[in-house]
Fold these 2 entries.
Entry 1:
Amino acid sequence: MFLRPRTLREAVEALAAPGVGILAGGTDFFPALGERKPAGAVLDLTAIPELRGIEIGPERIRIGAAASWTEVIRTPLPRAFDALKAAAREVGSVQIQNRATVAGNLCNASPAADGVPPLLALDAEIELLSVRGERRVPLGSFITGNRKTVRAPGEIVTAILVPRTIEGPSSFLKLGARRYLVISIAMVAAILEADTTGRVGQARVAVGSCSPVARRLAQLERDLVGAGLEEVGARVEPRHLDVLSPIDDLRGTAEYRRDAARTLVARALEAAAGGFLQ
Amino acid sequence: MSATRFTLNGGEVEARSAPAARLTQVLREEFGLTGTKVGCDAGDCGACTVLLDGEPVCACLTAVGQVEGARVETIEGLGRASEVTRRLQESFLAHGAAQCGICTPGMLVAATHLLERTPHPTEQEAMDAIGGVLCRCTGYRKIVAAVCAAGTPVPHEETPTAGAAVGARLRRLDGRRKVEGTDIFGADEAPPDCLLLRAVRSPYHRARFRFGDLEGFLKAHPGIHRVLTARDVPGVNCYGVIPPFADQPVFAVEEARFRGEAVAAVVGESAAVEALDLAPFPVEWQELPPLTTMDAALADDAPLIHPGRPQNVLTRGRVVRGDVEAGLAQADLVVESRFETGFIEHAYIEPEAGFARRVGDRIEVQVSTQAPHHHRDDIAKILGISPEAVRILPTAVGGGFGSKLDMSVQPFVALAAWLLRRPVRMVWSRPESMMASTKRHPARMRSRIGATRDGRLVAIDFEADFNTGAYSSWGPTVANRVPVHASGPYYVPHCRARSRAIHTNLVPAGAFRGFGVPQLTLAQEQLMDELAEKLGMDALEFRILNALRPDQPTATGQVLGAGCGIRQCFEALRPQWRKRREAARRFNEQNAAGVLRRGVGLAGMWYGCGNTSMPNPSTMRVGLKANGRIALHQGAVDIGQGSNTVIAQILADALGAPIGCIDLLPADTDITPDCGKTSASRQTFVSGKAAELAGRQLRAEILRQANAGEGARLSFEEGRVTVQEGDHERVLWLESLPLDARGYVLSAEATFDPPTTPLDADGQGDPYAVYGFGAHLAEVEVDLELGTTKLIGLIAAHDVGRAVNPMLIEGQIEGGAAQGLGMALMEEFIPGRGENLHDYLIPSAGDMPKIEFVLIEDAAPVGPFGAKGIGEQALIPTAPAIFNAIYDAAGVRLRRAPATPDRLRAAIKALAR
Ligand SMILES: Cc1cc2nc3c(=O)[nH]c(=O)nc-3n(C[C@@H](O)[C@@H](O)[C@H](O)COP(=O)(O)OP(=O)(O)OC[C@H]3O[C@@H](n4cnc5c(N)ncnc54)[C@H](O)[C@@H]3O)c2cc1C
Ligand code: FES
Ligand code: FES
């Protein structure tokens, strides 16, 4: 069965039945199927107007669950979102970006999901809806492990909400073994806000592909407060990355990941700091 | 089932397929729009790119139900409706941007989207636009150039006049259907009532197995007509590319020897087979301890994978000349090292596919193949019928690079169609292709090279083991070819080279561009650099000093006499070698505080064209038709490398006819004589020579009939040939001549087998009639902190004997170099892991720098118009040149390929300690 509701109401009602799979851009859905056909009913979210678009409000920015990476790239957004935009440009290829949704990237919960570090750094929240009602979960607690989220079977992610609590330049660096269409060996998002004296007032740094779920580097963020913009890279110490737990896989060794993550964090901070000059 | 309505190529349509079906499948199977290709069904290759409401998307990741009410455009529609697409198609043809053509529709669709918005894109914009489409043939550069140039109309091609085809940058003769998306590849055609076949494969590297209730399984699955196992094979359940070593069963018996080996197949109605879940298939596995490394396979107590092959050694190769120990003792300096490489996947964008149908007591197999006549003979043995009862109809081949020399779907579909008397089709999925198709041999090499203080090479001692996997495939060829090439393109008086091909319980390793020589060259050319450095000599001058001369013997004692252009190749690099090294030095000085380092590296190579000391004849037939046109029975399968075009060019000049008079008859074992396999860089050289001979023969016959001398000019017109000699003109009226059995008024057939001699026990003899030579200069930038390497420049100098079609040669060089780049920096296949194009990375459009070419034409006297092969040569020096450049930049030598960021970074850290 293939369900293509036009309203959110119909969608959550359909999802209340057991065994219904959600389909958005399909860029994780189809590869996961391999040669198999979808087992049960498929609920397509791409025809629901309520899920579309990116709304820019004074307090927060709302990314609809059907918004694609291409929409993120094309929408004018504050510079704290430059990291998210840079990530968007690095997701697979143009073909993938045109279909793949940001929400799908989070729901799929791959440790290598490029959307997670920038959205973690933005303190994003996930809005979920089911027939029982709506709830919001911070992204940091939404993804609980490799391909695991707190989303209940009857719930749809309806939007990603970003509070406008940081204003400043941001950057995203992705390390892969080729130029296009590549899954990250490691990636880092950083956002910096300056205080009135021109030093770091607030810093946010998140690292992906180096633990089952991407992590914010809280200690580093604290240690950066008060730092001069020219010294942000130098402030990074190995202990700041202790929260990471990288593994060996086809793309690289754990030791390499830890080492490269430190380099990327320093470079991402420097790139973000460079944003103040522009 | 509800229908999905959408606009397809400008027309309103209703799709009847299930709405959750992939759009690729619906376009191809329901609407017959096979221009949209399927390379992976996972978003990784972009061959399925279509425009959805004007934006490029992967049709394989889109459910047809999701395009309800939307606009879908495919290559077929764009080619008709879009001026931009048409200009791109012309530009692709003019630039030689389509080789095999399987990626071409996806490239064109992606580029159409760019050009509609940006009529004159920059290179960067072009790369960004096509970055989502992989190409394994071209190395992308000609595609990027074609996209950038498509903003302005492409000038019409000037067709060369009679006698001027060889040497012309002619467009591919079969190019138009490639850019239109109408070329038929293995998966693009099947009779309407065709059944579908799927294989049941071993999930273990090694396992004993027993079938359960196959009858019961059949009964429980309506629409499945038959389960096939080894018991159903009427002839011999065994095949292989080298008949004396043939050992691979169609279906394993009792024990599966590698993960992915077929043990059974199910055949039935397409829908039933597609929907089938093979998990409950009644087979019981008992996993056995596998031999997954060469050391394990060589151990004294290791079980034998094939009885009669002690120690699991399939074959040994050996070349000994002079006295290597005495030579090394004479040397003032000896360098020594070990090197290792892994399995490499061919990763052609077209997975294996085809169908078979029984026609009376004959079987016809339409399939993507590099070796039609050989497969005909193997199918005959498997079915227990005569080779004449088998017809192989090769489709367009969407990349082969050696792997499609081995059979893939052929035995399965032939057997099923034979037994069921219904056409049967098989299309491998990407994971299936990666699991079951052959790979490049992993190599473990040890080499010692000695030189005197004045820089002369005196001795080489080389040993290599190649992991040949579970079946022989091309293992013997690799084991034999490598020792012959161990000296490299240098004069080395004392040489000892030994090799072994060793069985393991892993995927069979077979032929992949270069048959082991790329692995060998990775080792030897790094040691050459080390020697030069220790001698305090310039790496290029050291190579020039030792470059083989036409009057010097090779390590097999062969004196080439002519056609030995290695010195010219190296010398051609001299100015750039100095310039670029200086530029790299300056960059490093200016950026001393930074983390980027540039370096420049070199490597040379040689490569024997054709089979090693074995007959490998090609036969070409040409016929003059009553209408004045010439039919060329061209059986040398064009796998994208261009034999359809190059061989016609050679024929045209041999005959003295304009190339436009020639009609190509595609390879078909019923109508084209045997041209051997498309391998070993032999088609231009061997089949091209046969075409030259056939052309000259036909010309002589025409001249004889016209009573004219050799210098006469021929012109071919409707119904006549005009023969002009000075002021004297004679017309041969073709309508008045009798037709032969094939409908020709005159015809000629010629066979060429390159003159070689057998190798003796010490590997002495003339293994090849012709060698190609080449040298690459690579320029890299290494990020010391991240261990990443970017190739920023490449200069390729190749001695091709005669450049029959320089544009196609450049395409071979760029494509080969891209594969060499992959081998150097990112490619390694680990059986059981990463059996997809998501994890197995091949270079993408953004990884290839601009390539500069130097074509040396040191004619090979036996080749057609002096031509040699180039198909494999181009790949061989790229990886070692990159490794040498990495050393120049970062000061570290990696003994294991690929130089992944983690390995390189670890080496850089170790150096700093
Ligand atoms: C070739 C290729 C390259 C890629 N490269 C990258 C890359 O570089 N970086 C990267 O991060 N990712 C990459 N991806 C994955 C990326 O495309 C996805 O993570 C994408 O963002 C998922 O979105 P989607 O809309 O396609 O999700 P779908 O495939 O439609 O769905 C993904 C999963 O999320 C669920 N889901 C989707 N939307 C919702 C919702 N609103 N509510 C509840 N559940 C939902 C689905 O049920 C499914 O389980 C790549 C994918 C491919 C095929
Ligand atoms: S077939 Fe769709 S991307 Fe490969
Ligand atoms: S031409 Fe691109 S894959 Fe063959």
Entry 2:
Amino acid sequence: MELTDKIFKFFGGIKPNGHKAISTINPIKRLPIPKKLIIPVRQHVGKVPNIKVSVGDKVLKGQILAEPIANISAATHSSSSGTVVAIESNKIPHPSGLPDICIAIETDGKDEWIKRNRIDPSNLSSEALYEKMKSSGIVGLGGATFPTHIKLNSNKIKTLIVNAAECEPYITCDDMAMQEKTKEFIEGIQITMDILKIPHAIIGIEDNKPKAIEKLKTVLNKSKNISIKVVPTVYPSGDEKRLIYLMLGLKISKEKRPVDFGIQVFNVATLISIGRFFYHSEPVISRIVTVTGALKRPNNYEALIGTPIQELIKDAGGKSDQEIIMGGPMMGFKLPHTDVSVTKAMNCLLAITDEMKSKDTFEMPCIRCTKCVEVCPAQLQPQELYWHAKSKQFEKLTEDYKLFDCIECGCCSYVCPSNIPLVQYYRYAKSEIRDQLKSSEVADIARERNEFRLYRLEREKKERAERNAQRRAQTSDSDKKKLIEEKKAAIAEAMKRIEEKEK
Amino acid sequence: MIAAILIILSITALIGLILGYASIKLKTDGDPIIDRIDKILPQTQCGQCGYPGCKPYATAIANGEADINQCPPGGDDGVHKLADLLGVEYKPLNAEHGETKPKSIAIIDESTCIGCTLCIQACPVDAIIGAAKQMHTIVEKECTGCELCLPPCPVDCIDMVEIPETTDNWKWKYPIHSIKQQN
Ligand code: SF4
Ligand code: SF4
Ligand code: SF4
């Protein structure tokens, strides 16, 4: 990949007010260990891992609670020491509000670690490394939560891109992490480069983070193999493909992934976790969460996974009944329950402001102003997508309007003068279409099985008929004579009896 | 003048002939209509439509013997799709054939099952496994929820269980904003 200093502007995008300063005044804060941790067993994209503990078990900090059962799966660990008090369905931070299986741990306050050794990736075979990574619990901590071991298991990568854009308004967790954990961040990048056996990495960072940029520049002063590329602040520059275009001028179509071009993109928090895992044998047991919005003291917290979010909200000066968005205002979702706990995906808790609420309440008809078209970075026709999603014309949506190219960035909803929650329509349509596809797959299997059964019944009928015919055919030769003889004898006997009676 | 009229008339006649021929030709060529109807039907194979399975019902619709609103598992959506495909008016599901229920699967209470194999014989998709005099189980993934195994079971040990909504099969809902606005 040719490296240049040039910045390639992508199509569309918006420049919303960042609201970032409010949560970067104070350093990252740590709260005392919560009395009880509620740790969802699955916090990643993929299969539910296998639970390895039972109620009553004593567990240590960093101990595995659930093991991945397939490749696309990840481990879950205990974030402190204590006792497993429940393994049951519990509320989780999910847009559906549906519960999922969680492990509740009553902490003992000792925060006692399992035995840890530094892991040197250069001593490990690639298989061993893969297995090690699988047990680390590391997933994409930018919010996508895709298991990281899969992204590291490739020998086709030539360029590592560090996604430090953090383009969503309000969110500052990566910014603060780069400022305060600079060394760990660089270690993480270095070790990831070692694992992928590549010589170069580029950090892509928006120009609204001058402190982090300065800090990185001083630390990376002499480094030849890690460079920084400062990109302008335009949302959604943090979208993987947008960032790649910004930095390299490479357009990647919907059908292709960055790996197809030898590029792998990792988020800041994920890289820090990779570093911590290899240098300190520390699995993912905590993450940095920006707690911000309509709160008295917005701040970033390094929170143990499983910490009740109410403890964070309270510390930040919020009230327990405040409405909270998980993630940013553009791509996040409103939490159906706020008595849930911190998960790996939770980069931000945003207390909804009055301004957001006012925008949320009324929807007016589309006036076809095409403002949405001008900002759509995927170069779609958002108003057409909206129209067809609203009227449930799903076929047109996928075929003519390329709904699945939509990255759900929310630029269109942001500029829409009619306040139409466009992305909500797209999410609805996407999940309906996915469900229909799945149903038709299931129906195809049922059709096949039914056809096979009919064929089987037919065959069995034929076989039975054949067997009967055969039996009949076999009896004809030797046994038939015998049968006739027997019958004759019986008749003769009967006749005899009759004769005797008549006498 | 007359020549012009004649020419126009003959052209129209010719086009009519071609169109007529094409429509017949296309219809008879590998008549895909049954398959296309069958593709819309949910393949539950429950027989509620009055036919012994989805394909026979599809055939009956294609032959004009059955109406398009007889399949409860397909629901309203299914009727709409059939109406679109066949270019006929949509009509609500015919209640005589039953009502659309939430998707369920059959579960055998394995402690009560006497292993009589009657359910196995009833299952249209061979989703029940087990030998004579051994308890039977239902392969969840393959069960279509047709309920055909319920009546033959002499000890009533089969239950229909609704498939619960989980974070895996949950779907984003239609935006509520528009409803608010309507009020
Ligand atoms: S911005 Fe809103 S009103 Fe304008 S065309 Fe797009 S959907 Fe319609
Ligand atoms: S949400 Fe989708 S349609 Fe709207 S601007 Fe972003 S990519 Fe385009
Ligand atoms: S009612 Fe049952 S058998 Fe008939 S078409 Fe519908 S699913 Fe198939």
